[in-house]
Write a structure and sequence with these properties.
Blueprint lengths: L12 E5 L4 E6 L13 H13 L15 E6 L2 E5 L18 H4 L4 H8 L10 E3 L6 E5 L10 E5 L4 H5 L12 E3 L7 E16 L8 H14 L9 E2 L16 H5 L9 H6 L3 E2 L4 E3 L4 E7 L7 E6 L5 E6 L2 E4 L9 E5 L9 E11 L2 E12 L15 E6 L5 H13 L6 E6 L2 H9 L5 E7 L25 H12 L3 H14 L2 E14 L3 H4 L7 E2 L3 H8 L6 E2 L2 H4 L2 H12 L11 E2 L1
């Protein structure tokens, strides 16, 4: 892909789609592997289907692609179908194609030991041999479109290894580097990303009823941008998810309310939660239903009807599974006795309806039922547990956390919050999956096409820490992406403002450090902006790395000219401005 809109620059394949879900792929050109074997559709099918989707080498990160369907339409064409509609599906096609005739019998260890050392490729560049185990050098001598001869990637392990060269750019051949710490001789600029820094409210937390979420958003919105926020994020200005129904003035009153009493009918109805009906209708799989009951007697049983046929269905709650022993698939109806699935507690009760279709286990729906029966808290003063704010302890987040702490301090609500910084990324993700937080500071990766619809399609805390799912929002966002109309934008913001699942703070950027003497070449105007998807391309286009000298052989044969040329090359005499020895 060659620009910020994600357009294709055909290389090995032509790719077409009309709906951003199903793609047609065919070969373009006649590429040849470096061992002389013609590249074919077999190589592409092997890479996409066997290596990536079926994950033949059991690579953990490839599990993201397990639900993609790949079919061979004809010998020269593949059809790739993704489970959801998303413009970011295009990024799948940036995976490198691998040669089937070499790798089809390789296991992962063979790939690492043999193929990675001497790869077979179709590109003009190839990996050069080096004795440095921390370097990867690409030989580009055969690449006609590049003025680079060699391109090196070097792993310096730590920033200290990098800065040990005298802490000065004069000692380095490194023109550009990313990182928090600046070195003398470099100018620091901003590298924009498509990651949106977001405060996620756990919508399943009993401490964060909808009125509290609205008040928190109002408090943050009113105060966050009054400080030096532009030093670490760019404010969101497109109007999306930027409407709020509270100024945050009443935040202290809401936070001082006991946990049990925060669950009330008005707040739930404000969030479009309806009373539990006599029968819950579920159409399709992976649905989300939320209800409330005011009388526990109305929640002795849960009756569910389906539009699909299942071999069997079950209800899960608190690790226990119960079945409707009278269920028959043709009836498309099941009734569960809730008392069998542990107690029906005050507050939120979460249930998962599972089913089997043709022997495969599927999640039919999650059903959340709020029990808003008044709870007797006694005559003493109720203890109010603080709201936990989870964040990854990295330099990018610390200014934001400090800003939030300052806002809460000025609003006299500091004691109602506890900040939990986690140093390890895997531990942070695990804490999200355990739902052990009320608020989480995280990012939304919008991708090249700024697609946010996938956020509302899953209640997985790892992807969506708010656990807020709304199919209507997905539909509206898809409409707005295709046709940005004010009417659709207002509908989106109306739903968002009422439910308030998160607060978008702005687009994140990372510091990029450029040698002082080449800043103007890379950023020729004050408005030139570097983006994470194209900064390397911008660097290569704007920076001439090789100075070629043209030597007129006839004139150099003259001893005087030759002597002058050598002195000029050594800097002993100033270069001539006319004559036959000129730099190009």
């Amino acid at each position: 892909m060659d620009d910020q809109w994600g357009k294709y620059q055909p290389d090995l394949c032509d790719i077409e789609t009309s709906d951003n879900q199903t793609y047609s792929l065919s070969l373009s050109g006649n590429a040849i592997w470096s061992d002389g074997t013609p590249m074919s559709m077999d190589d592409i099918a092997f890479t996409y289907d066997d290596v990536i989707v079926k994950n033949k080498w059991w690579l953990k990160w490839l599990s993201l692609y397990k639900d993609i369907k790949i079919t061979r339409e004809n010998p020269k064409q593949l059809k790739i179908t993704f489970p959801t509609v998303s413009t970011d599906n295009k990024l799948f096609f940036t995976n490198y194609i691998l040669p089937k005739h070499i790798l089809q019998w390789f296991d992962l260890q063979n790939y690492k030991d043999v193929f990675s050392a001497q790869p077979t490729y179709t590109n003009c560049a190839n990996i050069a041999q080096t004795s440095d185990q921390y370097s990867l050098i690409f030989n580009l001598l055969n690449c006609k479109d590049s003025h680079l001869n060699f391109y090196q990637i070097k792993n310096l392990i730590t920033f200290e290894n990098f800065s040990d060269g005298g802490n000065s750019a004069k000692n380095w051949i490194v023109d550009v580097y990313l990182g928090e710490q600046p070195l003398s001789g470099y100018t620091t600029e901003k590298l924009m990303t498509n990651k949106i820094v977001t405060v996620f409210f756990n919508t399943n937390s009993d401490r964060l009823r909808v009125r509290t979420r609205r008040a928190l958003w109002g408090l943050i919105k009113r105060n966050f941008y009054s400080t030096w926020y532009d030093q670490y994020i760019m404010k969101n200005t497109d109007g999306l998810f930027d409407v709020f129904l509270s100024t945050g003035v009443s935040i202290k009153d809401y936070l001082a309310t006991t946990e049990a009493s925060t669950i009330n009918k008005k707040d739930l109805m404000d969030s479009h939660v309806q009373a539990l009906p006599a029968s819950v209708a579920i159409n399709g799989n992976n649905q989300k239903q939320v209800y409330f009951v005011e009388n526990q007697n109305n929640a002795k049983t849960l009756t569910v009807t389906f539009n699909n046929v299942y071999d069997s269905v079950a209800l899960e709650h608190k690790g226990k599974t119960i079945y409707d022993k009278y269920y028959a698939g043709k009836n498309k109806k099941a009734t569960f006795t809730l008392s069998q699935a542990w107690s029906f507690d005050p507050g939120l009760n979460k249930y998962i309806v599972r089913g089997r279709q043709k022997g495969k286990k599927v999640t039919i729906a999650t059903i959340d039922i709020y029990n808003i029966i008044p709870v007797n808290t006694g005559t003493g003063v109720a203890t109010i547990s603080p709201i936990s704010i989870l964040y990854y302890n990295s330099p990018n987040y610390l200014p934001i956390i400090n800003n939030l702490k300052s806002i809460f301090k000025n609003a006299w609500v500091t004691d109602y919050f506890i900040f939990k910084g986690i140093d390890d990324g895997e531990e942070f993700q695990s804490t999200l999956l355990l739902w052990d937080y009320d608020i989480a500071l995280n990012t939304i990766d919008m991708g090249q096409k700024k697609d946010i619809t996938k956020l509302f399609a899953t209640d997985s805390a790892k992807t969506n820490p708010s656990q807020y799912v709304n199919q209507n929002l997905i539909s509206l966002l898809q409409q707005y992406s295709s046709s940005p109309q004010l009417k659709i934008l207002n509908q989106i913001n109306d739903i968002y403002a009422k439910d308030m699942p998160f607060v978008i703070l702005g687009k994140a950027f990372v510091p990029i450090h450029i040698k002082n003497e080449i800043v103007n070449k890379i950023l020729p105007t004050p408005t030139t902006q570097l983006y994470d998807y194209n900064w390397r391309t911008t660097l290569y286009k704007n920076l001439e790395l090789v100075n070629n000298l043209h030597i007129d052989g006839k004139r150099v044969r003259n001893t005087e000219n030759f002597t002058h040329f050598i002195k000029e090359a050594l800097g002993i005499v100033p270069p001539v401005t006319t004559g036959s020895i000129l730099p190009q």
